[in-house]
Design brief:
This protein is of the alpha+beta class. It has 2 domains: 8-218, no CATH class; 222-298, no CATH class. 60% of the residues lie in helices and 11% in strands. The chain has 6 helices and 6 strands; from the N terminus they run H-H-H-H-H-H-E-E-E-E-E-E. Helix 1 (4-45) packs across helix 6 (187-219), helix 2 packs antiparallel against helix 3 (109-140) and helix 3 (109-140) runs antiparallel to helix 5 (151-176). The longest helix has 46 residues, at 58-103. The N and C termini lie far apart (73 Å). 23% of the residues are buried.
Length: 305
């Protein structure tokens, strides 16, 4: 019985450690899923497909997210390194000015240095709040500006940069005057605005990335697998590049028409999504169920062995 408390303590520590790992992993998976979903939705919407009809799994969306997250993550990493380097330089300068002010209390030069730091902090805060107000005004004007292409990026950038400047201005002011606590109440709200803005910017970039991938694919559909489709009935297709031919009937034959030059865009949920070899706004995506109602052949495209 003497070992019971220690055993329970170890179990409690293990559960606490597991929870501290599982929770971040769950949040990370949810974020990767969302950004992968946003990118895939924009990508297949270009071809007239609702991504929910494809039937992609959570793992599929998570695996698709890196292509849309690479650019914003690298950008935020560079900005973070630059901000950390600049903050370290500012901190050292303020600490040097404060130390000089304490050592040379009878001279005015260190006091002027601290006064300049206070003015810089005040300018940063005022600029940040002005940018933040501009972003809020854009949010309120969504009904008028929602068709403006840069709106989904400009609005969160203004709010994020504004919140960051207001936060940093307050941080510099507290470095200059450590005893001042009057600016702390708004810190949490500004941090939430900054986090939300970063999320919004990343989601916008993910959507633009998906649309860019779709446009690139539409310009080079030959890189997708070529499909020959046999059907029981005539499809009356109008998409250019699709060759229709009638199959010679024979006893027991059920497939009467053959269509060549389709390209396999994606497969999901026991269905194939086929597109013509050249994509134009007038084209459409053909959804083919893999239930025996059609016959499919995939053409050999690589170099012969």
């Amino acid at each position: 019985m003497a070992d019971e408390p220690s055993t329970l303590s170890r179990v409690g520590n293990f559960v606490s450690s597991a929870a501290s790992v599982v929770a971040p992993l769950s949040v990370l998976t949810a974020l990767l899923f969302y950004f992968g979903y946003a990118s895939s939705r924009a990508q297949y919407e270009y071809f007239g497909i609702d991504v929910d009809t494809i039937g992609l799994s959570t793992q599929d969306y998570v695996l698709r997210s890196p292509q849309s997250l690479l650019t914003p993550l690298l950008g935020f990493l560079v900005l973070g390194i630059a901000a950390a380097t600049a903050h370290e330089a500012v901190r050292r300068r303020i600490e040097a000015a404060r130390a000089a002010a304490e050592d040379d209390a009878g001279t005015a030069v260190p006091g002027r240095r601290l006064a300049r730091c206070r003015r810089a902090a005040r300018v940063a805060r005022v600029t940040g709040w002005l940018l933040l107000v501009a972003g809020v005004l854009l949010v309120l004007a969504y009904g008028l500006l929602r068709d403006w292409p840069p709106y989904p990026l400009v609005t969160p950038v203004l709010m994020g940069v504004g919140a960051a400047l207001a936060l940093y201005g307050g941080s510099v002011a507290r470095l200059v005057d450590p005893e001042d606590r009057s600016r702390r109440p708004a810190t949490l709200l500004l941090a939430l605005v900054l986090a939300t803005s970063v999320f919004w910017v990343t989601a916008t970039i993910a959507e633009w990335s998906g649309r860019g991938v779709a446009r690139e694919a539409a310009n080079d559909l030959d890189r997708f697998p070529s499909v020959i489709l046999d059907t029981k009935e005539r499809l009356y297709l109008t998409s250019p590049g699709i060759e229709e031919s009638a199959l010679e009937p024979f006893p027991g034959s059920t497939f009467l028409y053959r269509y060549r030059n389709f390209r396999l865009l994606i497969e999901g949920g026991d269905r194939l999504f086929l597109v013509p070899p050249k994509w134009t706004p007038s084209n459409s995506t053909l959804v083919v169920p893999m239930d025996g109602s059609v016959r499919l052949q995939f053409r050999f495209q690589n170099s012969p062995p």
